[in-house]
Amino acid sequence: MYTTLPSFVLAATVYLIAGHSSVVGTVATPQRVTDIIIGLESLYHFNLLLILPPVLVLWGAVTKRPVIPVMLAACVLAIGLAVVMQGFSLKQGLNALMDGFNLSMFAERGHDISGVIADVPRLLNRGGMFSMMSTILLVLCAFSFAGALTLTGALTVIINRLLKVVRTTGQLIAATVGTTILVTGATSDGKLALLIPAELYKDAYRRMGLDNTNLSRTIEDAGTVIEPLIPWTAAGVYMATTLGVNTLDLLPWAVQCYAAVFFALIYGFTGFGIARVTPEAQQQEMPNETA
Q1: Of 52, 63, 224, 253, which has the fewest beta carbons less than 10 angstroms from its beta carbon?
Q2: Same domain? 103 vs 179
Q3: Would the pTM of this model clear 0.70, i.e. be above it?
Q4: Which residue numbers delimit the Na+/H+ antiporter NhaC-like C-terminal domain (predicted)?
Q5: Which residues on neighbouring strands pair with residue 276, listed in sequence order?
Q6: In the 3-class helix/strand/coil scheme, how is the chain assigned residue by residue?
Q7: Phi, psi of 28, deg, nearest 5
């Protein structure tokens, strides 16, 4: 909460100011939003049952169900709702699943789409399994590179050299941040960025009398939330593909993602929000490690 909550407040403030500025207001005016809503209402029959697929996915995430069966069940449910509620054919539903949805599917049903504004097709014409093939290929290549770096131990050598010059808490936090981002960018895998720095830095944090919660929080601040901002990572490719926005265009507005890093550095050099281990606890750990 020391880094996440301030980052959230800062991001909300930036979005509030940007949302009321004239520059951003010319891009998405209230009239344009109204036109998009009217266009969508002319195409779809909205009702509460349509939220069942995302509710199913959220339920699976909360209850920690297997990902693939839950996602497939949500796809089947969505196709069923499209056939029953929206009047699409089963063939159109399966085509949307594989090739992505296209507004021309309404024209096939005899629906007049000539009056729909251009923003609606840009919003709807996307998706499908085949659209993710380039993402999957990039992820496979990235994982191959990550495997080579891990087996050769190149990252371990770099990090061990870095630890030799670390003397203060602020330097240790900064080194952890830099290492986590480096591992994320080099391996394109956020999971390795959580595991490798944690294993290599845990002794350094213990020697400085710092609680492991500091290490965990710093890795989270520089790993999980930074990964979507690196274009060639799995999360970065997924975000760009899903949102239809280039990563570099998204970067300036992902305030909460990179703000946490700055707060982590500030806390490291000022000592605010840094949990320390008591001498008694350190003495208790020493016999356990020896045993």
Answers
A1: 63
A2: no
A3: no
A4: 1-272
A5: 210
A6: CCCHHHHHHHHHHHHHHHHCCHHHHCCCCHHHHHHHHHHHHHHCCCCHHHHHHHHHHHHHHHCCCCHHHHHHHHHHHHHHHHHHHHCCCHHHHHHHHHHCCCCHHHHHCCCCCCCCCCHHHHHHCCCCCHHHHHHHHHHHHHHHHHHHHHHHCHHHHHHHHHHCCCCCHHHHHHHHHHHHHHHHHHHCCHHHHHHHHHHHHHHHHHHCCECHHHHHHHHHHHCCCCHHHCCCCHHHHHHHHHHCCCHHHHHHHCHHHHHHHHHHHHHHHHCCCCCECCHHHHHHHHHHHHC
A7: -130, 85
Task: For residue 27, give Cα distances in angstroms to 18, 22, 24, 190, 243.
Answer: 11, 9, 5, 34, 17
Residues, the chain: 291
Q: Tell me the two tokens of residue 27.
A: 């891009």
- Digit-coded pLDDT (tens) for 215-230: 889 998 888 888 888 8
Q: What is the distance between the alpha carbons of residues 38 and 181, in angstroms, rounded to a whole number? A: 44
Say whether both 147 and 280 belong to one domain. Answer: yes
CB 196 within 8 A of CB 151: no
Q: Has residue 267 been placed in a domain?
A: yes
Q: What is the pLDDT of residues 233-289, one digit of tens each?
A: 878 887 887 777 888 888 888 888 888 899 989 988 988 888 887 766 666 655 555
